[in-house]
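Researcher: I'm preparing a figure for a lab meeting and need a structural model of a single chain. I don't have an experimental structure, so a prediction will have to do for now. The sequence is pasted below. Please return the structure as tokens so I can convert it later.
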Amino acid sequence: MIIGIGIDIIEIDRIKKACENENFLKKIFTKNEIKYCENTKFNSLAGNFAVKEAVSKAFGTGIRNFNMTDIEVLRDNLGMPYVILHNGAKKISEKKGIKKIFVSISHNKENAIGYAVAER
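Model: Understood. Here is the structure written out token by token.
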């Protein structure tokens, strides 16, 4: 059963500019996300940002009662994105009975989009 869906789009250049500030990187992305994106362009970081926003929308809460780093966006061996929830985001998920979150990321030269479906 679907609990919620979320979608977000972000300009890649906006993330690129924000990443010039190291505090932004640490506030938004986990060490694992930063490590994964070191060898890629900013479209991966922008995609991760969009997924974090999409997951918060699937929760129905927006970014409340948790930090952006509480949603960690990683890739499996095939490059498929998935999320790991921590701290406040994990508590919200458990409270809402969410058992699985499916995510998808896409981008073109200018924008990245993230999509999330939360299921019970």
